[in-house]
């Protein structure tokens, strides 16, 4: 019992960390599916993350040693008699008193098993907007997974049942999920349904969405450049028969070639496919459109190179011109200035940004291209 505050703090801390770790993918999914961010669904997801981590903490931790968990016994342990806790409470009442039994450990554990799954019922129904039966069945399934984990000794981690797998726990957990499902409309009715977000009219592209797309473009470019550098270094080691531990750092030429590969794969290729949107724009559901509603190869390439191409040149040319006085630094400085202007321009006006102004494109939600009869 004294461990409960520590376990609660552990669940909150780890759950918050897990939510922050998946925050960017969550933003991408929301922009792609809905064209907008839903603060209520993000908050609900954070609550789910904290709850699941807390559930793991309360049902598995603190982890004992094998000797502490098993002692002289081996194999799983199962309490398969329904309502066995009633006999335990009656036995405790015979030893003490009925009020004492009703406030004792056995009763408290039953109550805690119910309370532990009430948040699940609230969150599961609030996030999925499914019915009471579905939510209760999901609670049963989750509780069954917990009991199976305990019965199997954390799936073989322990040679005995990690804790007693109890059918009463399964029943009381499911009851808690049912109570939570019934309370959900009062507790989390403010969470907007995913279906309503999907069917809402596509919104105008805003500054945060544009900035996230630009950040994803930078991340994609950097990742491909790093992978290309590793491949070039590995190829050099194999071709020269070197020991990998003795391989030297990549040369400026190799870094420039890696950046060139990234420019082709991340900037040029996406401009030639579909709407011509960049990798980051596609991930957040943005598409460039022109006055007549159709793109062309020259305009798509111009849009891709107006900022991305200049940034890539700032990575490629200085590496290839290493040793020239002033020129590499000048190119890098101009490239950085263009990127800064692009970021600022994405924050103002209609958020088309520098690449849109140069190529004549506007940025719209991708679903506008899929809506018959939509006006761009």
TrEMBL record:
UniProt superkingdom: Bacteria
Signal sequence segment: none
Residue ranges occupied by any VanZ-like domain in the UniProt entry: 50-186
InterPro entries the UniProt entry points to: Teicoplanin_resist-assoc, VanZ-like
Keyword Zinc on entry: no
Pfam families: VanZ
Keywords: Membrane, Transmembrane, Transmembrane helix
Record has Membrane as a keyword: yes
Residues annotated as transmembrane: 6-29, 41-63, 101-124, 131-150, 170-191, 211-235, 255-280, 327-348
Protein name listed in UniProt: VanZ-like domain-containing protein
Native source organism of the sequence: Brachybacterium muris UCD-AY4
Lineage start: Bacteria, Bacillati, Actinomycetota, Actinomycetes, Micrococcales
């Amino acid at each position: 019992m004294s461990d409960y505050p520590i376990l609660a703090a552990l669940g909150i801390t780890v759950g918050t960390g897990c939510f922050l770790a998946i925050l960017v993918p969550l933003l991408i999914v929301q922009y792609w599916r809905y064209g907008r961010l839903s603060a209520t669904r993000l908050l609900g997801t954070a609550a789910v993350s904290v709850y699941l981590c807390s559930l793991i903490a309360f049902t598995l931790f603190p982890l004992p040693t094998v000797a502490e968990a098993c002692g002289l016994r081996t194999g799983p342990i199962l309490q398969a008699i329904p309502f066995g806790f009633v006999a335990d409470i009656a036995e405790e009442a015979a030893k003490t008193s009925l009020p004492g039994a009703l406030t004792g450990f056995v009763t408290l554990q039953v109550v805690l098993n119910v309370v532990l799954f009430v948040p699940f019922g609230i969150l599961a129904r609030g996030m999925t907007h499914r019915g009471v039966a579905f939510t209760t069945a999901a609670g049963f399934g989750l509780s069954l997974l917990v009991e199976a984990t305990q019965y199997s000794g954390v799936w073989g981690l322990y040679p005995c049942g990690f804790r007693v797998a109890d059918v009463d726990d399964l029943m009381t957990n499911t009851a808690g999920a049912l109570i939570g499902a019934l309370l959900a409309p009062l507790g989390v009715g403010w969470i907007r349904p995913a279906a309503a977000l999907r069917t809402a009219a596509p919104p105008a592209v805003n500054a945060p969405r544009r900035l996230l797309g630009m950040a994803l473009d930078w991340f994609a470019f950097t990742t491909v450049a790093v992978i290309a550098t590793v491949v070039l270094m590995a190829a050099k080691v194999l071709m020269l028969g070197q020991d990998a531990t003795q391989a030297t750092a990549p040369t400026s030429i190799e870094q420039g070639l890696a950046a060139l590969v990234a420019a082709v794969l991340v900037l040029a290729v996406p401009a030639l496919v579909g709407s011509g949107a960049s990798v980051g724009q596609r991930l957040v559901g943005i598409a460039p459109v022109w006055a007549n509603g159709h793109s062309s190869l020259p305009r798509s390439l111009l849009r891709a190179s107006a900022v991305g191409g200049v940034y890539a040149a700032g990575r490629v040319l200085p590496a290839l011109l290493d040793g020239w006085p002033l020129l590499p630094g000048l190119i890098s400085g101009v490239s950085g200035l263009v990127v800064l202007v692009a970021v600022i321009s994405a924050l103002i006006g209609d958020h088309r940004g520098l690449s849109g102004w140069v190529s004549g494109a506007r940025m719209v939600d991708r679903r506008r291209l899929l809506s018959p009869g939509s006006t761009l």
